[in-house]
Amino acid sequence: MAEEVLLFGTWGSPFSRRVEMALKLKGIEYKYIEEDITNKSAALLKYNPVHKKIPVLVHNGKPVAESLVIIEYIDETWKHHPILPKDPYERANARFWAKFIDEKCLAAIWKSCFGEEKEREKAVEEASELLKFLENELKEKRSFGGETIGLVDIAANVIGFWVGVFEETTGVELLTKEKFPKLSNWTNEYVSNSFIKENLPPRDKLIAYYRNRFGIPNASK
After folding, report:
1. How far apart are CA 112 and CA 140, in angstroms?
2. Averaged in consecutive runs of 10 residues, what is the pLDDT profile of the chain (221 residues)?
3. Can you tell me the distance from the alpha carbon of 34 to that of 9, in angstroms, rounded to the nearest whole number?
4. Which of 21, 176, 180, 211 suits 109 as a labelling partner, its CA being 20 to 30 A distant?
């Protein structure tokens, strides 16, 4: 019996795109279902009744929710082209930094760009302090996974692509080459990588989406 793999997501979500990246890295065939987050489908609510959010992977009828959890499930189910390192310490380290991005960096980045005007300066400082940890973690490596794309590189798609979109949308400067030379180089390589590029949404469409969502005029920068 053929395996059935479904992915519920939205085109502009970094979390959906993470899962697509992992599936494509493994060469797994899947059916993508675009969700309208303002009018969620009965299927999404059925498969993720707790959070009622995308992404949700459904493998042979069994749902898995939350992007980082889904990526680990994919890596453990399909063993070829490993996403996490084999070494237990390195695996733990990768999980730590992926979680750090989600639990610490994302909120600070969002507040820096889309938070209350009066709080933005403080939020930019906080985001910069957090990004410095990632700058130091890169050391002299080409990517967080070493020579290959790993869990942290996939989790950091928000920093590699979405931060640039947020900056252009709002005029806020976060990731400058002066402050973050290694992270900036990693970002440039990230968006230039043909595999990564194929798994990113159209930049102009995404900028237009955020400008429309937050009522930001085109001449904001």
Report:
1. 28
2. 89 97 96 96 97 97 98 97 95 97 96 91 95 94 88 96 96 95 94 90 96 80 42
3. 5
4. 21
**Phi–psi pair at 56, nearest 5 degrees:** -135, 130
Reading the block at residue 90, the tokens are 């390195």
Order of strands across the sheet that contains 62-65: 31-34, 5-9, 56-59, 62-65
Measured between alpha carbons, how far is 123 from 177 in angstroms, rounded to an integer? 19
CA distances from 152 to 97, 134, 145, 157, 159 (A): 6, 10, 7, 9, 11
Residue for token pair 């310490």: 89
Q: How far is CA 146 from CA 35, 64, 84, 200, 218, in A?
A: 34, 28, 11, 21, 38
